[in-house]
Amino acid sequence: MLTFSSLGGQTIHCVNGGKTLTIFPDKAEGKADLFLLKSPEEEPTEGNISWPGEYDFGGVAVRGIGHGEGDKISYAVEIEGIRMAFLASPLQELNDYELEIFGDIDILFLPADDAKIAQKMIDQIDPRALFPLMTKDKDTFEEVLKKCGAQDNGPESEYKVKSRGSLPSEGREVVILKPKK
Q1: Regarding beta strands 60-67 and 53-57, do their DSSP bridges make them parallel or antiparallel, or are they unpaired?
Q2: Which end of the chain is more exposed for a tag (fewer CB within 10 A), N or C?
Q3: What whole-number distance in Å separates Cα of residue 17 and Cα of residue 98?
Q4: What separation, in Å, do the N-terminal and C-terminal C-alpha atoms of the chain show?
Q5: Is 180 in contact with 157 (CB distance < 8 Å)?
Q6: Which domain holds residue 154?
Q7: What is the pLDDT of residue 29?
Q8: Is residue 149 part of a domain?
Q9: How does 33-60 read in b/e, with b if 16+ C-beta sit within 10 Å?
Q10: Rg (CA), the chain
Q11: 113 has which bridge partners?
């Protein structure tokens, strides 16, 4: 079972049994077995992924995808057959090659930087579950929620996925995570 929670902004905490991942933290500190960083580190440290490439950590498959001049990294992660995409902020359109690298995504974590680009990414990736993340301002976040029909959804403290089969087979579930204090 996967359990997701928000640590604020674009930072997501994912627990898979005894393993924990923290995605896009401001600093790679705290309790996690693996940190996925949004910008490359000059001197990579153990337990941190910050460069494009393919990685495998005991059943957690990670693919880092570099953007632009290599200044930011997005990730495709697969755990227990569930494929997730964590798109880096600021949000930008993905080209066909990048979309192919991401592949079939079950859960999309999307920074709410630009409502127009967000809508295009949602349509192209077509996830079964969507997590809009507030990264810019409340108005842009509200506009993204409106475009995906989730303006009335209340925030949840965490979200659990038992298996790929427990995700919606039709339509899309939109989840808003409430940051932990």
Answers
A1: antiparallel
A2: C
A3: 30
A4: 23
A5: yes
A6: 2-174
A7: 77
A8: yes
A9: ebbbbbebeeeeeeebbbebeeeeeeeb
A10: 15
A11: none
Q: How far apart are CA 29 and CA 20, in angstroms?
A: 12
Whole-number Å distance between alpha carbons of 178 and 181: 9
Q: How many domains does the chain have?
A: 1
CATH code (residue 101): 3.60.15.10
Alpha carbons within 13 A on the beta-carbon side of 134: 15
One pLDDT digit (tens) per residue for the chain, 181 residues = 999 999 988 999 999 877 899 999 988 777 888 999 998 888 878 889 999 999 998 889 999 998 877 789 999 999 999 999 999 998 899 999 999 999 999 999 999 989 999 999 999 999 999 999 988 788 998 998 988 877 777 889 999 998 888 888 888 899 999 988 6
Torsion of CA 139, 142, 144, 146, to 10 degrees: -130
Pairing of strands 159-161, 129-133: unpaired
Note if the pTM is more than 0.85. Answer: yes
Q: Exposed (0-12), middle (13-18) or buried (19+): which is 119, by Cβ within 10 Å?
A: middle
Q: Classify residue 28: in a domain, yes or no.
A: yes
How far is Cα 14 from Cα 17, in angstroms, rounded to an integer?
10
Whether residue 25 contacts residue 38, with contact meaning beta carbons closer than 8 Å, is answered with: no
The residues facing 131 across adjacent strands are 109
Tokens of 53: 């490439």
Q: How high is the pLDDT of residue 85?
A: 97
